[in-house]
Amino acid sequence: MGEPKPLTAYQQTYHWRNKNCGPWAREWIKKSVPGIKVEDGKQRVEVDEVTSVSGDCDLGQRKGKLLTIYDLEVELSWTGSDAEGSEVKGKIKCPEVSHEAIDGLSEYVYEITITTPSPANSSANALSSFVRSDLLPRLSEKFNSLRPALLEAHGGPSDEATSGVSTPQNQHYSPAPPGSANASSTTSATGATAKSAPVTSPSTTTPKPALTGTKVVEVKAELQASAADLWGLLTDQSKIPMWSRAEAKFSPSPDSSYTLFGGNVTGKIVSAEAPTKLVTTWQLKKSNWPSDHFATMTIVLDQGSNSTNVTFTLDGVPAGQEGELENALDGFYIRG
What we know:
GO molecular function: ATPase activator activity; protein-folding chaperone binding
CATH superfamily of the largest domain: Activator of Hsp90 ATPase Aha1, N-terminal domain
Domain Activator of Hsp90 ATPase AHSA1-like N-terminal: 18-156
Number of helices: 8
Number of strands: 13
Helix content: 10-25%
Radius of gyration: 23 Å
Family: Belongs to the AHA1 family.
Strand content: 35-45%
Pfam families: Aha1_N, AHSA1
Number of domains: 2
Protein name: Putative chaperone activator
CATH architecture of the largest domain: Super Roll
């Protein structure tokens, strides 16, 4: 066999490097979470210990930009007192502290158990409600600070993940997910709403708003890749997670259903003209997206001699959500 061919300029531009930051992330959570506490009269709850952290945490680098990718399961113990002054102990499990939750693409889910119930059942129920309403938002805030802490610890230009690459601290890549409100295309991680698994009864679901009007959102980019390569990234189920950072189900066949971003974007294929045009219905799984409403996503690929112009047009965006959806399309579909 002959010598391997050198990388093309395109391949070098899209070279990916990855650093395992799992041990650091697990240690950071074990040190940062204990001591978080909330009080309201005699009701008091404080995190005693993080008993378990499992999962992965990576820092990736592509085109000189840093990507944080992680999915961790966290379990902790807490001690508190109810309104009667009786000591109560419990546990909390968060199955997914992930970049999707920190980006606002999904919600944190918490499982709460009381291991030493209060003598008065009503007091125990009141304390579990206090944990949900006051402690869980504090935990979410702490989990949201994992990304900036990770970048500060491992994202410097002298770090081995970015050795030889000039990446100023103020250019760290933190994309906005579909539906996440951001001030600009380089906004850092957004907050996520805490959602717990109630101890005694399921929580109520907030009704979704009615559709009052729609708008068209369009974003464009010139990408240093062929239309065929980009078509594969956009439509090949095995390649989509490379840029969406989440599980996908996709087949470019008319009338077939698809899911992107771990099920947070769903729809059906309207038409697929490889490698130039893809039209789909598009629905966002988010509290402020009206029920049973689908927008239409049209992706047009126009290949030139050295690059491909890509246009993403989302027709049917609920009025008032244009800004956040524009940032989302730029952050996940283009910069992702």
